[in-house]
Amino acid sequence: MQELVIPFMKLDILICTYNERIAQVPAMLLPFRPDISYIVSMQYTEKRFLRQIPEELQTRRDVKLLFLEGIGLSRNRNHALQAATADVALIADDDCRYTADYFDRILSVFEAHPEVDIAQFMLHTATHDPIKPYPSRACPYENRPKGLYPSSMELAFRVGRLKNRILFNEHFGLGTKILICGEEEVWLHDASQAGFSVWFFPYYIVDAPYESTGKRAYTDKGVMRAKGAVNYHLFGASAWLRMVKFALIGACQHKASFFLLLFQSWYGIIYYLKHCRTHENTVVGRSE
């Protein structure tokens, strides 16, 4: 294992929350330290939820509160990202839990690897560990093993390099009507295609509950549609045949109807081609 490098950088924790879930955020906060700040972006549908903000979030000097009316997790992530000012930012949900060692590890990796723009780490859960085929060694995004899809809570990035250059595609993610997941895969792919250096590092950096969207691909129509759209975004026209294979496997394993899986995943592709193929989230490539 690589030795920890003493961090001299600062880290923003970008916490996205929604309505009454703001009450969960104080449980995420660690004792104050000067190199860590929390940016809490509270999305709300009615102003009455603003009265539920815990006092601790309003009084701590290391917490910055943001407010965004409406719905859409990717929209909320972009809102938090635009407020980041530290050297590195970590994407977070309101049910994440951290330790000081986790924060030290993130900063240490970015200190030791100045060439890396985005780092994917490991998510620890109490019931499913490991949750993915995490490799034992660091590897670039282009050489990642099959099945190493990103979860938002695993991702950290250099603020100065990505801010105002690449954002989450707001057609994907919770709160949308059609493509309810897949925003992390699209964001990471867009970043890599734009020339940003993306690496995986085999270190746990967050404790959180975990629900695999892969398992819901055979039960949730929104996930089926997102799978088709994400595949088209990543692989182009071959996604049509990839979704035929997906539907065949699901039907042969008696997980769902072949026609249901094919129709919904192809519907996702068609929606993507109409609404998402060109979008304003990917701004420009990496600057030298």
Secondary-structure map with pairings?
Blueprint: E1 11-18, E2 36-44, H1 55-59, E3 63-69, H2 73-83, E4 88-93, H3 100-112, E5 118-124, E6 139-140, E7 155-158, H4 159-162, H5 183-193, E8 198-207, H6 213-216, H7 221-235, H8 239-252, H9 258-275
Parallel strand pairs: 1-2, 1-4, 2-3, 5-8
Antiparallel strand pairs: 4-7, 5-7, 6-8
Helix pairs in contact: 7-8, 7-9, 8-9
Task: Describe the overall structure.
- The chain is 33% helix and 18% strand.
- The protein has 288 residues and is α/β, with parallel strands linked by helices.
- It has an eight-stranded mixed sheet with strand order 3-2-1-4-7-5-8-6, with helices on both faces.
- The longest helix has 18 residues, at 258-275.
Helical percentage: 25-40%
Tell me about the biggest sheet? 8 strands, mixed
Strand order of the largest sheet: 3-2-1-4-7-5-8-6
Distance between the termini: 30 Å
Radius of gyration: 19 Å
Percent of sequence in beta strands: 15-25%
Query: Helix-strand pattern, N to C?
Result: EEHEHEHEEEHHEHHHH
Count of DSSP H/I helices: 9
Low-confidence stretches: none
**Which structural class do the helices and strands define?**
alpha/beta
